[in-house]
Every structure is written in C-alpha cells, then in structure tokens.
C-alpha cells in the first residue's frame, strides 16, 4: 500500500495496521465500553460531516470545512482527556467538539453565519472558540496552561493545529514559551497533508514532530488514522503534563479526504488517485475491523449505529434550520462589558432606538 | 508633597493593582529582574514574586496571545510592549482576539487585559522607537485606548485601565517618562472616556494628548501674550472620546485645533474634526485645524524636531484659526 506522500520519513507509532490487524499493544487502557463509545462517535461524526457538506450545498451553511479521514485523530485524542482538561481547537475540530459535549447545532451556528467562533460556552464544554487565524489559538493555549500552572491545578491544556500552522510565528512563539515555562500543554498537530492547496512538502522541509527537540520537550509521530495509537500517544502526553513534566508535541499523520472547505475545488491541485489511495487508510474501517475481530462489535451493532447516525444527522439538520437569523442587537450586545457612551449611541442609531 | 516621575507613578499603579487584586499579573520583555527598560516595573518582582511579575521570551504575539488564554483562566493580565514599533507582531492577536473575544464568546469570556506600550517620539531614539501607533488601536472596535500626559494622571489612567472589564491599550509617552509632578497619587477622578481642561480660554480650543499636551500648554502661554485665550484639552481617552466635552468646547470657543505626533492622514485629528463637525457644526467659526507629524516615516533623531509639532507651529495654527 502506498502511503500518502507526507507520511514519508520516520515511521509513525502504530497499534493497528490499516487492515485492522494488531501491530502494537492494543491494551491502551480502555475497556470494551469505551472502545465502543469511541467507534460510535467516529460513525456519528462522519455522518454529520457529510450532512454538513450537504447542508452547505443546499444553502443552509455558508462555508463548511470537512474533516473526513480525521475521525480517529480527533476522537482518539479527545478520549484521552479528563473532563476538566481544556482544548483550544482550529476550525476543523467538529468531531472533537462532539466528544467534548459541545451541542453540534450550536457549534454549527458558526458555519451557518449565525454567530462567530464562540457560539457555545467554552467554560462549560472545556472547548475554546473556533479559531480561524492560523496558529493564534496555540498562544491562547499557552496562556491557559500558564494560568493553570499558576493556580496549581491539574488541568491539562491541548492546542490543536494543522501542518500549515507550524509555518506561523505564533506556533514557534507558543512552543518556545511552553518549553521555557514547562507548561502542562499538549501540542496536537493533525498533519493532513494539505494546507488548502499547498502540500506539506511545500510547507516545511523537516518532520514536524522533530521540532519539539528544539523547544526542549519530547515530540512523537503517530499514525493519526489509528484511533488506538492516537489515544495512547495522547494518554501519555496528558499524563506527562499532569505530572508536571511539561509539554509534548504530537504529530498525527492523517489525510484530508475532502477539499479544504466547501469553497475549495481540490481537483485544481491534487489528483483524485491520491485521495483514492488515501482511502485505503480509512480510520473507521481500520478500527471497526479490529473491533469486530475482538468481538466488541458485530454487524447488528454497526447497523444500529448507522441508523442512529442517520437520525442524529437529521436532528442536527432540523435544529439548524429551525435557527433563524439572530436579532440585530447581537451585533452590539457583547462587544464591551462596560460599553462606552458613544458606542451605545451608535447602537441606538443602528437599531432605531 | 511627593514628587513623581511618570515612570514611578506608573510603577506605583502596577504595585497597587498587584497588591489589591491577586489575579493581576504583570509580564513582558525585561519587566522582571531588570524592572523594564524605562524602569516602570522596577521592584515589582522582588515584592510580588516571579509568579506574578515575570519576564517572557521576546515574543510579542505570544505575550498577547498568552494574555488571551489567561483571561479564559480568570486572570487579569497587564502586558508590556517594550516599544511602539515592536508591538506590531502582536497586532494579529490584539485585533483578532483581544478586541473580539468577548463578542465572539457572547459575553462569556471577558478580556480584562491592559496593554502598556512605550510610545511616541521625542527622545532622539533609534528608528522604530518613535512611532505613534494609536490609530491602529483606535480603529479596532472592542478596545479602549488611553494616553496619559502627566505622572498623576498616568497613575489614575493605569489604575482605571487595569480595573476595566474590557481590554485597554495604554500608550505611554516615552518623552514624558521622566517628567515630574507633585501631588498624591489617587485613582479617584476622571476615568476612561473623560477628557480634561488644563487651561481655560474662550478664543480657541487646542486638543492634544500625551507629550504634546506640554507643548500645547507652552503654546497657550505664548498665545496669552498675543491676547488669545487658548483652552487646552488633554484628551486622555482616545477610545471612547469624550464627546460631551468636545462638543461643549467647540460650541463655546467656535474654533478648534488638534495637535498630535502621528501622521496627519487618518490620525486622531481626522476623527476629532469629523466628530466636532457632527456635534457642533453650527457653532464653528473656522475649519478645524490639524498640527501633526508628517505623512512620512518617523525621521532619524537629528530630524525629529522638524517632524514633531513645535510650539511655533501650534501657535501659528491657533492664530490662523482665530483670525479666520
């Protein structure tokens, strides 16, 4: 099997081969119920992702960035977090958001144009606002982790980002600070091979995980389409952080099956054959095959989840469509905690008193 | 009565804020052990420890971004940008997140961040050490922007900035760090959004902020000898503007001159002229005049005096406006 180009170089840590056969220690510390829950979320997430693309085509979402192919990376990582841990996501982390308990309808307010990046409650869900300016959220994660360290809490912070973000200054500044301050922070990079139209090879000449050494903390490369391997990598990184041993950089090798977003035509810059080859590494097929072999799931259960995913996607669709345009005053309501008089006069002018 | 430099008064404001609120943090480049290149943070780390007052790597974007994350964790960061032109790497964080995060999170996450920036020219500094960055911040909705002109008011404004629930940019005029003023430091009195009249006069209103206030006061003394009464307004707060005071002064004097170091185009003078026109057009007896830096990059030290508004330029602009 030909691996995606950006997987070349150092072999990633792997528990399951692409066909689901074990090649590493499958006892990652998750019981059968948790393993099933992980697979169920992967099935639900993929179905919702496809529903979102349909919703965009039908004019119900403005622009939507799909995550198909990245379910194991996001859900495997999310499963390794404790409830109190805090994630700072990019704009492609819907699967992780679902696992963290973010209401998908509320999340999708973002892509519907109903609200900006923080439509849900970050404090309650322990999931930060959707961040579009590349790599800026990594610096927020540094601040949050520093705040936890100063408070002496055992909360671990996770910064999500992609391969493209590692070219930004904010990534470097954040990683450098995390190293200097030995912060309880996990740098979780999903290297999906593409930053819109630019392949990883044109983004960076080295291997992303290796950068950690320069910042003074460990890095590792993991097969991001292997749910168990991602879980194990994140479990260890979180444990290190919680024990006060500092940061870890995880590079999860995955593949962006879809376009960058619904506004993007990927056929302009990559061959369909490349996508087809990448499908051989499908994370759900892999994990489900192992789960079947282990006797954790059977056809009936998989069918039941497929049916549940249908109704789940439908309920999100209905909830989303029921959401009308927000009231005009929302454009002003939360700009300031203590709004100045001239601002309030403009608000009045805009809203007609 | 105690005599204060602006540097010491700002340092005392930080000291008092750190002492009163255990969630206040002070960090930036060289603010810890060294006490800051302008000595504003001198002694703070020794008193409050390196958990509350600390040095960062040279990472302006990281500093501003970390402040955002700290707000999510319930802290109240006071960050320092060592020099105006060195604050630009942080602009993305400030514009995209500091200014917008409260709105983005529908009011769930306040951003009580104070961003101190050593600003403006007049100290014969090297290039990139004499810039006037105020328009970038004033033009960014969600921020408040203040500029002190004297030590006692610097204390007051910084205390208000730190106590404010919204992000406040404090542009500290480098040229006034060592200027002295006698009196007791107090946070009581005019807050953010309030300008103050420093010299009464009925013939023309001259509006300035930061180090230009001193020059305008000198110009007012010259004008007095010419028989012209210049009312001097220290703007203090660039966002929000004290519209009521601007309107009243424009109505009462009918003539307005705005003075700032920043380049003329889209400087504060443009906004004040527009605002005065909207609020008091019928009272105006002359066009609003602007005495500003030129639309050229800030020059080398040897040419600085020709760039900054001089007392003479201010006087001439006031006389022209009065004679209009």
Can you tell me about this structure?
- The complex is a heterodimer of chains A (353) and B (324).
- Chain A is α/β, with parallel strands linked by helices and 353 residues long.
- Chain A has 15 helices and seven strands.
- Chain A folds into two domains: 5-322, Rossmann fold (3-Layer(aba) Sandwich), CATH 3.40.50; 329-353, no CATH class.
- Chain A is 47% helix and 9% strand.
- The N and C termini of chain A lie far apart (66 Å).
- The longest helix of chain B is centred in the N-terminal third of the chain and has 15 residues, at 6-20.
- The model of chain B has no long low-confidence stretch (mean pLDDT 98).
- Chain B folds into two domains: 3-182, Thiamin diphosphate (ThDP)-binding fold, Pyr/PP domains (Rossmann fold, 3-Layer(aba) Sandwich), CATH 3.40.50; 196-323, Rossmann fold, CATH 3.40.50.920.
- Helix content of chain B is 36%, strand content 20%.
- Chain B has helices at residues 6-20, 44-48, 60-72, 91-98, 101-104, 134-138, 151-163, 212-225, 243-253, 268-280, 304-307, 311-323, and strands at residues 3-5, 24-28, 53-55, 76-81, 114-119, 144-146, 168-173, 180-182, 196-199, 204-208, 230-234, 237-239, 256-263, 289-293.
- At the A-B interface, helix 6, helix 7 and helix 15 of A face helix 3, helix 4 and helix 5 of B.
């Amino acid at each position: 099997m030909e691996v995606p180009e950006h997987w070349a170089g150092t072999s990633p840590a792997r528990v399951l081969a692409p066909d689901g056969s074990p090649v590493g220690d499958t006892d990652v510390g998750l019981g059968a119920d948790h393993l099933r829950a992980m697979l169920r979320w992967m099935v639900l997430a993929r179905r919702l992702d496809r529903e979102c693309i349909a919703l965009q085509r039908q004019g119900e979402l403005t622009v939507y960035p799909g995550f198909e192919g990245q379910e194991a990376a996001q859900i495997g990582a999310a499963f390794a977090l404790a409830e109190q841990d805090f994630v700072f996501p990019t704009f492609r982390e819907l699967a992780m958001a679902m696992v963290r308990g973010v209401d998908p309808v509320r999340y999708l307010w973002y892509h519907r144009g109903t609200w900006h990046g923080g439509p849900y409650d970050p404090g309650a869900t322990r999931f930060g606002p959707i961040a579009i300016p590349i790599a800026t959220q990594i610096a927020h994660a540094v601040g949050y982790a520093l705040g936890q360290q100063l408070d002496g809490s055992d909360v671990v912070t996770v910064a999500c980002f992609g391969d493209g973000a590692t070219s930004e200054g904010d990534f470097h500044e954040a990683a450098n600070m995390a190293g200097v301050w030995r912060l309880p922070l996990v740098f979780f990079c999903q290297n999906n091979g593409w930053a819109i139209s630019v392949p990883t090879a044109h983004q960076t000449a080295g291997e992303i995980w290796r950068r950690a050494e320069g910042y003074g903390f460990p890095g590792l490369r993991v097969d991001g389409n292997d749910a168990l391997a991602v879980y194990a990598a994140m479990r260890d990184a979180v444990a290190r952080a919680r024990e006060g041993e500092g940061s870890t950089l995880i590079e999860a090798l995955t593949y962006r099956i879809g376009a960058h977003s619904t506004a993007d035509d990927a056929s302009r810059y990559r061959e369909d054959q490349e996508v087809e080859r990448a499908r051989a590494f499908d994370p759900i097929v892999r994990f489900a095959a192992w789960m079947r072999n282990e006797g954790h799931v059977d056809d009936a259960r998989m069918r039941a989840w497929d049916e549940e995913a249908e109704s789940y996607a439908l309920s999100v669709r209905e909830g989303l469509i029921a959401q009308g345009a927000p009231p005009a005053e929302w454009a002003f309501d939360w700009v300031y905690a203590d709004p100045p008089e001239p601002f309030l006069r403009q608000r009045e002018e805009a809203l007609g008193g | 009565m105690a005599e204060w430099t602006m540097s010491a008064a700002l340092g005392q404001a930080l000291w008092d804020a750190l002492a009163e609120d255990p969630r206040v943090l002070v960090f930036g480049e060289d603010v810890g052990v060294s006490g800051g290149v302008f000595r504003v943070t001198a002694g703070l780390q020794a008193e409050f420890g390196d958990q509350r007052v600390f040095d960062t790597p040279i990472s302006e974007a990281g500093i501003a971004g970390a402040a955002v994350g700290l707000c999510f964790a319930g802290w109240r960061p006071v960050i320092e940008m060592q020099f105006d032109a060195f604050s630009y790497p942080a602009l993305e964080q400030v514009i995209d997140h500091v200014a917008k995060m409260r709105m983005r999170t529908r009011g769930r996450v306040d951003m009580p961040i104070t961003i101190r920036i050593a600003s403006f020219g007049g100290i014969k500094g090297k290039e990139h050490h004499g810039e006037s960055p105020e328009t970038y911040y004033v033009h960014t909705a969600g921020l408040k922007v203040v500029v002190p002109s004297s030590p006692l008011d610097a204390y007051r404004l910084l205390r208000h900035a730190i106590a404010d629930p919204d992000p406040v940019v404090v542009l500290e005029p480098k040229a006034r760090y060592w200027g002295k003023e006698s009196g007791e430091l107090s946070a009581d009195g005019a807050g953010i959004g309030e300008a103050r009249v420093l010299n009464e006069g009925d013939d023309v209103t001259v509006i300035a902020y930061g180090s230009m206030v001193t020059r305008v006061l000198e110009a007012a003394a010259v004008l007095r000898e010419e028989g012209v009464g210049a009312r001097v307004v220290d703007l203090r707060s660039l966002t929000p503007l004290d519209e009521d005071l601007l309107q009243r002064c424009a109505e009462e004097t009918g003539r307005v001159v705005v003075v700032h170091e920043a380049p003329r185009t889209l400087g504060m003078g443009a906004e004040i002229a527009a605002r005065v026109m909207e609020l008091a057009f019928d009272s105006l007896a002359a066009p609003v005049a602007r005495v500003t830096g030129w639309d050229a990059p800030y020059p080398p030290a040897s040419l600085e005096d020709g760039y900054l508004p001089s007392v003479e330029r201010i006087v001439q602009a006031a006389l022209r406006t009065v004679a209009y």
